[in-house]
Design goal:
The protein is of the alpha+beta class and 216 residues long. It has two domains: 88 residues, Alpha-Beta Plaits (2-Layer Sandwich), CATH 3.30.70; 106 residues, Alpha-Beta Plaits (2-Layer Sandwich). Helices cover 38% and strands 30% of the residues. It is built from seven helices and 13 strands. The strands form four sheets. It has a five-stranded antiparallel beta sheet with strand order 1-3-4-2-7, with helices on one face. A four-stranded antiparallel beta sheet has the order 9-10-8-13, with helices on both faces. β5 and β6 form a beta hairpin. The radius of gyration is 21 Å and the shape is globular. It starts with a strand and ends with a helix. The relative contact order is 0.12. Keywords: RNA-binding. One of its GO terms (molecular function) is mRNA binding. This is RRM domain-containing protein. It comes from Cyprinus carpio carpio.
Length: 216
């Protein structure tokens, strides 16, 4: 990883972007050279797993938010080493919290679970876990089913909040089976599901009773 020597600049999160869909041969040096040609950067990092295998995404930290925005506008959706890359502002967990509060969805503490929507119906729990394990230790991965058929959504739980934040940033919008995933923290979805299930169950019981009455 290359980094600016002035630590006060590097500690600022302003101007931090995440690049998704990197070719496997892109390393820290190549990433730095590519993005430093547009604006001055503070640091660059390609993310690797414990075996030093590149995970397909990385970070560039620019000196200003404006510089980061200009680079996103110029390079998002373009080809880098033959691969279509997606580039956006990297959001910290605090920023995710702020967004969720503004949308009346306050996050719970120690919530390391993600809600994954718009999944291909062929994707099973094991495949879901494998897909998200690239970002850290997955403690559980479950595809929600009804009568043994996938409902197209599920939940992934990490052992680390940092891993969950990275996975959300990278996988939200990621294409799987021609479908863009929608990935968010799961607390609000879980609450909604808990509320909806008894309501739906009550509705079904009342409807069944009504139909029996009509039949009689």
């Amino acid at each position: 990883m290359w980094a600016e020597t002035d630590s006060t600049l590097r500690k600022s999160v302003i101007g931090n972007i995440i690049i998704k869909g990197l070719a496997k041969d892109i390393n820290n040096l190549a990433l730095s050279r590519t993005f430093s040609g547009f604006r001055k950067i503070l640091s660059s990092r390609v993310v690797c797993d414990s075996n030093k295998e590149q995970k397909g995404y990385g970070f560039i930290h620019y000196t200003t938010l404006k510089a980061a925005g200009l680079v996103i506008k110029k390079l998002d959706g373009t080809l880098l080493s033959g691969y279509l890359v997606s580039i956006c502002h990297f959001k910290t967990h605090k920023e995710h919290q702020a967004e969720q509060k503004s949308s009346s969805k306050p996050p719970q503490k120690k919530d390391f679970s993600l809600y994954v929507q718009n999944m291909p119906y062929s994707l099973g729990s094991e495949e879901l876990g494998t897909l998200f394990s690239a970002f850290g230790e997955v403690t559980s991965a479950t595809v929600i089913k009804k009568k043994r058929r996938s409902m197209g959504y599920g939940f992934v739980t990490y052992s680390s909040l940092d891993d969950a934040v990275i996975a959300t940033s990278v996988m939200n919008g990621y294409i799987v089976g021609n479908r863009p995933l929608r990935v968010t923290f799961s607390h609000s979805a879980e609450k909604t599901r808990q509320i909806e299930q008894p309501i739906n169950a009550t509705f079904c019981r009342r409807r069944a009773g009504y139909e029996r009455t009509r039949a009689d």
